Amino acid sequence: MLDAHCSLAGLGDFHIYWGAYLGTPDEILVSGPVAEVGDRIRELRAEARARRGWIMDTYLLRRPSADQ
Q1: Contact 35, 63 (CB under 8 A)
Q2: ∠ CA(33), CA(38), CA(41), 5° rounding?
């Protein structure tokens, strides 16, 4: 999922797998419950964009399974 605005608010029940600059030496990966890692993703995204002048990132959201 591509999301230029990092619209993670209100998705606390989801698990996120987020990555930026995938497949490059500058790759950044974060995963976990959105409620726990959402702010960190926003910070990393802003820092990376300021440093490089651009950002290419994507994420996958999953609902927790009933047996977790």
Answers
A1: no
A2: 120
Q: Which of 13, 62, 20, 14 is nearest to 43 (CA)?
A: 20
Q: Which two tokens stand for residue 62?
A: 């999953």
Residue whose pair of structure tokens reads 């047996």 in the numeric block: 67
Q: What are phi and psi of 22, to 5 degrees?
A: -60, 135
Does the predicted model carry a pTM greater than 0.90?
Answer: no
pLDDT digits (tens, 9 = 90+) for 13-43: 899 999 999 999 999 999 999 999 999 999 9
Please spell the DSSP secondary structure of 8-27, one letter per residue: -TT-TTSEEEEEESTTSTT-
